[in-house]
Amino acid sequence: MSLRLSLVFAVFVMRAGACLAAEEIEWLHRAARGGVTLTANPLTAAQRTAFYLARGFAEPAIRPYAQACGFSFAMRNSGAGPVRTALADWQAVGADGRRAGLRPPAAWDAEWVRANVTEPARVAFRWAQFQAENTFEAGDWIMGMATLDTQLSGSFRLIARYHDEKGTHEIVLDNLACGRD
Q: DSSP 3-state assignment of 83?
């Protein structure tokens, strides 16, 4: 089997496994507005390190990502029309008022290029991330990982904005905290 065909097969298996796993996950944080539901679970550094070591990353290369405050997110559109979301519109707000955005996957990918991470590992990374921009038709959903661009201490709230034909809306997840090993 060629490397390219192996990569395509691996990506297909990863996505198929993620679809099955999404239905079985017990989400710690859940909020809904209109027909849109957002769920989140904190991920520890050990979880993310193990996940990406198995996908071809060297431990030193993945360490900055693993040490960032990261989550697994799922978003579902159960409404009647399309919904658009962009990580650039999401914001975490700490109890002390400090704010943090979500770091786009492309910013991490630029680090992987500088660290000489292989293309297959970088592709696996991109497939596992919550995409920077999404459009969801009725019934669509996405699941993936994302990190804050700044570490927040203690608990915080996440304000996730999305857009539909009626305008801009917010879903708020309260009492989030970074995963601890």
A: strand
In CATH terms, is domain 27-176 a member of 2.60.40.2550?
yes
The token pair that represents 169 in the structure block:
């809306």
Q: What is the pLDDT of residue 113?
A: 96
Given the structure tokens 């009725």, which residue do they identify? 138
Please tell me whether residue 49 adopts helix, strand or coil conformation: helix
Write out the two tokens for 177.
Answer: 């905290």
pLDDT in tens, 51-82: 999 999 999 999 999 999 999 999 999 999 99
The gap between the terminal CA atoms of the chain, to the nearest Å, is: 38
What torsion do the CA atoms of 43, 73, 51, 149 make, to the nearest 10 degrees? -70
Angle subtended at Cα 65 by Cα 62 and Cα 66, rounded to the nearest 5 degrees: 80
